[in-house]
Design a protein that fits this description.
This protein has a domain of 113 residues: SH3 type barrels (Roll), CATH 2.30.30. It contains 3 helices and 7 strands, in the order βββββαββαα. Helix content is 16%, strand content 20%. It is extended.
Length: 183
């Protein structure tokens, strides 16, 4: 049978195989196949890139969790997990420092100047480890929360109606098409 006209060269469009330069941390043997079938787990976790518009000080809307529908301020991306760090601040709308996946936020065009906020370098993924049973909320976490909230409260008070904006819930009114809403 003659070959079709489009496939004149058997290797047309194929790319040469290049070995991956990342180190192998673990070789996982498949349980259901013979021993020569293996999957390789690589050792490098690349931090996900931030979505467009997620800049420090941007107001975002939470889509899941106990604070669903709340407007919060984006502070930074955490190093290890790649999650985004947000705060209400707690004194304004009751949202404490939280880690959230950037999938579960809507970025708005509103921004708050947080250049003078101190204490952000103390908040890492280790900050969110659960405390022991005898301690309900460690004192150092309270201090960090208050330090960041006080800094942000000063920035919020400089802008008119920002406090009321952050207090209000985000909702879509029945009959309002979501794709037309401007954030």
């Amino acid at each position: 049978m003659p070959r079709p006209v489009q496939a004149r060269h058997p290797r047309k469009g194929r790319v040469a195989y290049k070995k991956d330069g990342r180190p192998v941390t673990k070789v996982i043997r498949s349980k259901w196949y013979p021993f020569q079938v293996k999957r390789v787990k690589r050792g490098v976790n690349n931090r996900c890139r931030l979505r467009k518009g997620l800049t420090p000080g941007a107001v975002v809307i939470l889509l899941t969790g106990p604070y669903r529908g709340r407007r919060v301020i984006f502070l930074k991306q955490l190093e290890q997990s790649g999650s985004v760090l947000v705060t209400g601040p707690f004194g304004v709308n009751g949202v404490p420092l939280r880690r959230v996946s950037q999938r579960f936020v809507i970025v708005t065009s509103v921004k708050v100047d947080i250049s003078g906020v101190q204490g952000l370098d103390q908040v890492t993924d280790a900050y969110f480890k659960r405390p022991s049973k005898k301690e309900k909320l460690p004192e150092e976490k309270k201090k960090i929360q208050l330090q960041i909230d006080d800094s942000i409260a000063g920035a919020i008070s400089k802008e008119k109606y920002m406090r009321e904006y952050l207090k209000s819930y985000f909702t879509i009114v029945p009959g309002q098409p979501p794709h037309v809403v401007r954030f």
